[in-house]
């Protein structure tokens, strides 16, 4: 597919057709004149040349008003794969352009929404600090929180500079949301949730039904539900219902809110609506015009496909995530999941390598759950390779690592149960599923255990009804 074809699939972008741009190929006209003739805000220019068996592509993003370059990049690919070359180049260049265009277009939209130069400048500073804090969080959490504090202070100044602009208020809510995600103790996170909800509400007072404020409130409500800090079951369920309503309304108002689609995908999983979860992830993939949430989207697409036994698609999304985000531990993790299922062959040596990759890449503290889960999945891969005794020993070692702090909701019980089905110990698997069901009474496990493929090997067991009966 051509680059024009790739970009035309993104509904948020208006792309001139090949016939429309053809008269201007190789034109000596100034680039701002071409942009005016085509009635576009941004031009994509570039060149292709071959050198020593490699194709080098240079791309430039050109501002349609001034004619000045505001982004450029280079790509190289081997020249010997002629059939794949066009698609590969189009995909790589499309990804780069969507990311860079997103940054530029978001800046333009923000600038147009306020008449205050001071407020606009302060919001840009606060947003840069928010991103800086996220980047340093894994290595220096305390420093990240200091940076969040500075970002919030600057966003507050922007709010004062233009009280009628919702953007700085919602940005403060986003900063609070990031703090929630990075706070390890659930009860310590509650004040940040309350602060973020306050900002979201004020944003909607400034601009009624502001989609980003609605999405923020939905994400904060869902985060609050995940923390399980309320003892009132009705209040806890109301958080999930409220989050769903906010998020669904937000994406209906603005379908390009990829992060809201991703959160909806997680939420639908919690109510055991896997098809809806996969659909929400696909919507995120389609609507994320600028690939701002690409790693989360690919992770949700992988999981939705795996849960629906769509193994070809699961392999596809895992491979894409591995290629694009090699430093994201989740894409080592997804390869382990594939090896522990019928989706691919189990390779014991490779499974150990992937487990070590998760151990190294997962963040300290917050990544401990993933480390233990990867250890268990390694046992699953070993069991699928036929080394049952070794698998049992590895699983026992992994189980010894589990603590309440690592797995407060006891989700790892279900992982252990699945691995035990691979080992052949169905009675213990059923015992663990009963414990999991008791620990998660609102999960509705009894309604799905008899249909999802994960427990297919247990369905013929006489005791399986102990899991499926209410």
Q: What order do the helices and strands follow?
A: HHHEEEHHHHHHHHHHHHHHHHHHH
- Termini separation (Å)? 52 Å
- Percentage beta strand: 5-15%
**What does the overall shape look like?**
globular
Number of helices: 22
Give descriptors for this structure:
single chain; mainly alpha; 3 domains; 3-stranded antiparallel beta sheet; 3 strands; 470 residues; Serine Threonine Protein Phosphatase 5, Tetratricopeptide repeat; Rossmann fold
Topology overview:
Blueprint: H1 3-8, H2 18-21, H3 31-38, E1 42-51, E2 54-63, E3 69-78, H4 82-112, H5 117-136, H6 141-161, H7 167-182, H8 186-206, H9 211-227, H10 233-253, H11 258-270, H12 274-287, H13 294-307, H14 311-324, H15 330-339, H16 348-361, H17 368-384, H18 388-399, H19 412-423, H20 426-439, H21 445-448, H22 465-468
Antiparallel strand pairs: 1-2, 2-3
What's the quick description here?
This protein is 65% helix and 6% strand. With 470 residues, the protein is mainly alpha-helical.
Please give a structural write-up:
By secondary structure, the chain is mostly helical. It folds into three domains: 110 residues, Rossmann fold (3-Layer(aba) Sandwich), CATH 3.40.50; 139 residues, Tetratricopeptide repeat domain (Serine Threonine Protein Phosphatase 5, Tetratricopeptide repeat, Alpha Horseshoe), CATH 1.25.40.10; 142 residues, no CATH class. A three-stranded antiparallel beta sheet has the order 1-2-3, sandwiched between helices. A hairpin with a 5-residue loop joins strand 2 and strand 3. Helix 7 runs antiparallel to helix 8, helix 12 packs antiparallel against helix 13 and helix 14 packs antiparallel against helix 15.
